[in-house]
């Protein structure tokens, strides 16, 4: 029996359900939607997973007090708290300002105890006496594209004296510009600076939507008058649904957990590749697509080049890592460090390797995605932060500190 | 307004409810107002441009019909074409032309001869321009009578479900349905709701997820990609654009169904096509039939016949091979440029012209004429990768990028090589230039498409005869789809065809 809705010409396209009566199809639709919503509730409405904390590892946390030194916040994570950090700098025309870029290693502490401080807080104290104010900007899994954007944005708001950039292989895995920094793209000077760099046009193209909305927000006085009718109505609707329905709020959890499952499937693909090709099983966890690494290396090159062009001393440093439980292929990691050293020196920047500065016993633990606890290769205890701050101070003193103006 | 948003879900629910409550004339007025509101959710100032385009044709068609002298009829037709294509040219192609003139001037030693200007492309202009032009041309050809009712005509052009990205509809497909008050039938609700749910799944879950891998791959330096990566990216983008556009079409068709308006299908499993021509019978059907009737056949010197009087006369019987081939190449060149103002799009069109020319040659050889199944299988094995490779032109950001990527494909040594990166260390024997999940998805999609096609064609018609089998299958499928749509419904990405 053909449906009366079949088109008069062209290829026949049957609907999903053609032979059932319309009322049965509507009943099936209503039942399916109801069951679908129940399934979402059943699967995801349990205890909310803290995705940021999960990424930080077991008993690794962030504490506001540990980010301060001398009554000011040394470290900020997003555009929204950048102004707070910059405003709290002591007003002085003679003091030097050093910008330290990094990821959660700079602000997360394993096995935290009251009074513990992060490496940036400790380093700020050490540099204070030398007339140097340290500002650290870190965000989870920062990538060089974001570092480049942050640098171009911050240097237009503060006269910088030097720049510290990590040579961090895990950052090469990351992509995109996160929402907390996308608004920096609204600054025409930042966009112009990015556009003039080799990695800039692709970066701007990839963030075209963010650039567009950021520009619209920047060009007009308020968000309310700049958003399209669609955006305003959608925003209002989403806010209402968020306030009214617990099921609605589960969506974020569901998206996050599905994303994690996809990441896990990626690891399974690499595991399968190793099985098929008989390659080493050791490197399955952190294989970085060369295309993505190429984009990020170019961004890192551009960042160092831009800072050197601005006549800033730059220190590219290899961050601390556990010696015996580091998941990257040693050959890959050695080559990466060599690349970073080469790109730093090509632009007249300094290079320091402090990878052995933190003792093996102070690293935290993290779930490897397969239900096993392994050594966290990013985060350590307060002791580790002290060791890292000391090593970084020595590295600065030996390299760029004497050059800062 | 974007289909993949909760705003649209609420908007559609209200429109459908009010629509069925109103008598014929207020219903048309209400639908017209709703359509203008729908478009205005993007930009209200551009509604005016759309109405200028539409009502130029309204008056031109009436005057063409009224005029006795052929010269006067031609004059009105010329006016319609000038206004419609003038607007399209200004908004879509003027900067492209300026860029090309400046490029030539640069070669001759003069820089920045002409200035480009900032102009926002009105959403859907390519679609409503084709639709209104086809109306005027059909009146000129004497195939249809002009529409005297401005409201009905305005509704034909602006009807929100197909306004922004098609399907490109003819007057005969829409006007009779909008002009009479159909009684409500549960059938409309049943088929419309399933189509919309399916469309939202294709867009929000499949197309947008694949889009992330595609963006990254095409945003990378082609030097870091292996030949395998290029193929994977081509397949991924091929499926992204298919899911994206098929989703839009399904939501459009489903939304129209909720109001009792039946649109012809726009897609039918294009990736199971066994030849390039077969592909275009399954992909964006409304555009390919438009192009055939209003561009290819006129270029061949063939007057399209009314389908109701025996359909189209096979072109081959009347037109020489040379003229047919020139018409084919010209048609596909224009088809490419219709999709976007750039040489990459033109090359994509020419690539398809080449594929069809090759198909004509192979068909002329009469190979495997009696082995239908084997011919179909071999045809698919050739057509699928050829169509996919063409997407590299379509998605590449520049000619340089497209060429750099295609060069990889053309060099056998690039398939199984050791990837070298920066310092010369080796990755593995299997190139990993893009996200590993991308390989997995690209491997699954063609197989899943074939399975879905076979289920749709062979199994489902059998299952659906028995409610005891069909209902659980439909509910199980719908549960999974509804759950994913609920989680992922958000306007994070526009539909790709909005830019055309």
Give structural notes.
The complex is a heterodimer of chains A (405) and B (500). Chain A has 405 residues and is an alpha/beta fold. Chain A is 48% helix and 13% strand. Chain A has one domain: Rossmann fold. Chain A has a six-stranded parallel sheet with strand order 4-7-5-8-9-10, with helices on both faces. Chain A has a two-stranded antiparallel ribbon with strand order 1-6. In chain A, strand 2 and strand 3 (72-73) form a beta hairpin. In chain A, helix 1 crosses helix 12 (246-277). With 500 residues, chain B is mostly helical. Chain B folds into two domains: 6-184, no CATH class; 188-499, no CATH class. Chain B has helices at 6-21, 24-40, 45-66, 70-107, 125-141, 150-158, 160-163, 171-179, 186-219, 227-258, 276-282, 285-300, 321-339, 343-365, 372-395, 399-410, 436-463, 467-488, and strands at residues 420-421, 425-426. In chain B, strand 1 (420-421) and strand 2 (425-426) form a beta hairpin. In chain B, helix 3 (45-66) crosses helix 4 and helix 12 (285-300) crosses helix 13. The longest helix of chain B is centred in the N-terminal third of the chain and has 38 residues, at 70-107. The radius of gyration of chain B is 24 Å and the shape is globular. Chains A and B meet through helix 1, helix 8, helix 11, helix 12 and helix 13 of A and helix 1, helix 9, strand 2, helix 17 and helix 18 of B.
Descriptive tags:
heterodimer, A: 405 residues, alpha/beta, Rossmann fold, 6-stranded parallel sheet, two-stranded antiparallel ribbon, 15 helices, 12 strands, 13% strand, disordered N terminus, B: 500 residues, mainly alpha, 18 helices, 70% helix
Summed up, what is this model?
The complex is a heterodimer of chains A (405) and B (500). Chain A has 405 residues and is of the alpha/beta class.
